[in-house]
Every structure is written in structure tokens, then in C-alpha cells.
Amino acid sequence: MSQTVAAAPVTAVHGQLLLDTAAASIRHGLAHGRPLPVDLQNAPPAVLEPRPVFVTLERRGVVRGCVGRLHSPHPLIRDVADNAYNAAFQDSRFPPLEEPELDGLSLQISVLEPPQPLPFSTEADLLARLVPGRDGLIIQAGWAMALFLPAVWASLPDPAQFLHHLKLKAGLPAAGLPPGLEALRFGTECVSGPMT
Q1: Residue 5 lies in a domain
Q2: Tens digits of residue pLDDT in 19-47
Q3: What percent of the chain has pLDDT over 90?
Q4: Cα-Cα-Cα-Cα dihedral sign, residues 73, 30, 155, 77
Q5: 188 closest CA partner among 70, 87, 78, 72
Q6: What are phi and psi for residue 112, nearest 5 degrees?
Q7: Is 85 within 8 Å of 106 (Cβ atoms)?
Q8: 92 in helix, strand or coil?
Q9: CA pair distance 139, 141, nearest whole angstrom
Q10: d(C-alpha 152, C-alpha 150), whole Å
Q11: Which of 19, 131, 160, 167 would bridge with 172, disulfide CB 3.0–4.6 Å?
């Protein structure tokens, strides 16, 4: 009887390549005002698969930008380059990154595992089903939608506060749950390191 061996996480095998690509795209953006054009011909097959990915920038432990996509037809490595550029220069919460800020800048790449529906009956039930530190969460009600990566638990370790801030991010009322709210949970494969 043969056993299926799970593939190693792409971040474990190609994490440094992804970090280097993100850093190069930010430097390219400073010099040229656009993301790094990625050489797909010489990229390993594992980073050519489309995967949802977010790139988070932190400077001295404080978030400086975070951009990603839940759905993309593009190769993972291209989205890493695009999202790193967008996190540095297009995140509407922050002014565009300037060169002096590279000192102390760190990068985190979060490759999302497929989101799974999280059934619940009440807000208390939803909170009880969340696993702090592990679960990323997507909530959606009508056109309102928001996502928190698992890394957000570091600053919002209480499930009630985690959900409260996610509802605010989605533009939903902080009190109660709107009718028809759907929740999906997901894990991530992460790699992080200093801007090089």
C-alpha cells in the first residue's frame, strides 16, 4: 500500500527566493515607479502555480503596508513582486515608501491555504470555533468583505476583539452579526525576513 507524501510548503523550499523577489520589487519600485518584471522562464515550477498571497511590510515592528489577493490567475512569484510593490507604494493607509525607510524594514510573505467554510449559529459560536494564532478569517455579508491573516492575532489575541476589528474593516456594524454573514477560515504558509 503506497502512502501519499504531502508536498513541502512552497515557503519552506522557495522562501528565500520569494523574499528576494519582494525586496527586489520594492527597490525596483523606488528606482522605476513600477513592480519588478519577473523572469518566469527560469523560475522553479512551484512558484509558477497561482496561489493567493499577501505581502506585509513592517518597520521596527509596526505594519507599514499589507497587500494581497485572494484570487489571481498569475504565477505566485509574479504576485509576490506585484504585492510587495503595492504594499510599499499603493496601500491607501500609508504614504508611499521612501528610501530612508528601507532601514529597519522587514517583509512577511503569507501564502494562503484554501479557505474553508466555518459554519456557526451565533456570534458566540463563531468566536468559540476560532483558533487564535492559527486561523485566518474572511467574513462576507453582501458586498462587505474583509480578511485578517493569522498574523493579526499577535496584535489582537482576544477572539472577540479580533472579530470586532474585522467587522469594522469590512464596514459592518461592530455590534451583532448581520443576516447572511458567511465566514471562512484559512491557514498560511509564511516566510519572513529583513529587507535585503
Answers
A1: no
A2: 999 999 999 999 999 999 999 999 999 99
A3: 88
A4: positive
A5: 70
A6: -80, 135
A7: no
A8: coil
A9: 7
A10: 5
A11: 167
**C-alpha to C-alpha distance for 145 and 116, rounded to whole angstroms:** 16
User: Does residue 84 lie in a domain region?
Assistant: yes
Angstrom distance (rounded) from CA 163 to CA 171:
12
- The answer on 79 and 153 residing in a single domain is no
How many residues does the structure list for the chain? Answer: 196
- Residue 24, C-beta contacts closer than 8 angstroms, at least 6 positions apart: 36, 81
pLDDT score recorded for residue 94: 96
Please classify residue 147 by burial: count the beta carbons closer than 10 Å to its beta carbon, then call 0-12 exposed, 13-18 middle and 19+ buried. Answer: buried
Q: Which domain holds residue 163?
A: 116-187
In 33-172, where does DSSP find H-type helix? 76-89, 123-129, 159-170
Helix residue spans in 10-58 (DSSP H): 10-32
82 shares a domain with 148: no
What integer is the mean pLDDT of 122-128?
Answer: 96
Full strand arrangement of the beta sheet holding 144-148 = 116-117, 182-186, 136-141, 144-148
Cell representation of residue 176: 451583532
Q: How far apart are CA 19 and CA 80, in angstroms?
A: 8
The answer to whether 139 and 185 are in contact (CB under 8 A) is no
DSSP 146-164: EEE-GGGGGT--SHHHHHH
